[in-house]
Amino acid sequence: MSTPANEVDKKLIVQLREKTSAGVLDCKKALVESGGDIALAVEWLRKKGLSKAAKVAAKVAAEGRIALRIGSDLKSGSIVEINCETDFVAKNDNFVAFCDKTISYVHEASFNTIEEMREQGCFSENVNSAIATMGEKIDIRRVAKLSETGGIVNGYLHSNAKVGVLVAVETDCADLGGFVRDIAMHAAAMRPLYLDESAIPAAVIAKEREIAVEQLKKEGKPEAMLEKIVPGKIKKFIQEATLAGQPFVKDDKKSVSQALSDAATQRGCTARLAGFVRFEVGEGIEKKSASFADEVAQQIRR
């Protein structure tokens, strides 16, 4: 007995996606056909040729590649992280081709978030086709886009495709593209957490202040000195945590924002950082430790 499509509980769709890695539309259809029964919906998906996705859904996909695309006019950029289970597959020509195809699609499409992407009809079809081809869990984990009609967007993808960065700069300079790429390379290496001080949540500053006070107390600093020392520690945190405040790797006597401003001034114009995105493969994912021999054995068993 089927269930009307408009009555499918969204929570059931989420549960089914977690179990099978199937797309939103496929999960919704499976639940409609199975009357909202999760077990029957899983069976329905498997019968439709999605058993490979269901089989690998519980596995950890923490390897993979970052793909990046910059518009030819340097006004827009897109970045995506695509995960797989092993470094073997991450270097496989089929996986590389899948990543290239995905970033092209992402850059040309109108959506801006991974949630919007997952609602596209072709999303689950493409992912499940990749799973079937490569025999591992494949996950398009996250996407991001930057655009700057009144400036420049450029980026940097490290040679191993494990780290990628987009940087947007608001500027009236027409020839700062190379410098913006240098900033993206800086961000790839130095791992800033925030664009500038204004982007740091108040709760983060408060926590850093709390930590600084506790550290100083353990060092035996008198209470009267705390308010004189803590601001300096917070200032140092802001400098280290922000792209704007970090010493520029190509001239560490200047901050990134100062180096950018000076580069623009030399060209008779102005420039300021407007945004950045940094993706690193697998960051935040709890990885299972496996030896090289284990990876080889896993590939042989497929």
CATH class call of the domain at 63-194 and 276-282 and 294-301 = Alpha Beta
Whole-number mean pLDDT: 87
Biggest beta-sheet profile: 3 strands, antiparallel
**Count of DSSP helices?**
12
Question: Percent helix among the residues?
Answer: 40-55%
Return the CATH topology of the domain at 63-194 and 276-282 and 294-301: Tetrahydropterin Synthase, Chain A
Structural class of the secondary elements? alpha+beta
Beta-strand residue fraction: 15-25%
Number of strands: 8
Gyration radius, in Å: 24 Å
Spatially, the strands of the biggest sheet line up as: 1-2-3
Gross morphology: globular
State the fourth-level CATH superfamily of the domain at 63-194 and 276-282 and 294-301.
Elongation factor Ts, dimerisation domain
Written as H for each helix and E for each strand, in order along the chain, the element string is: HHHEEHHHHEEEHHHEEHEH
**CATH architecture annotation name of the domain at 63-194 and 276-282 and 294-301:** 2-Layer Sandwich
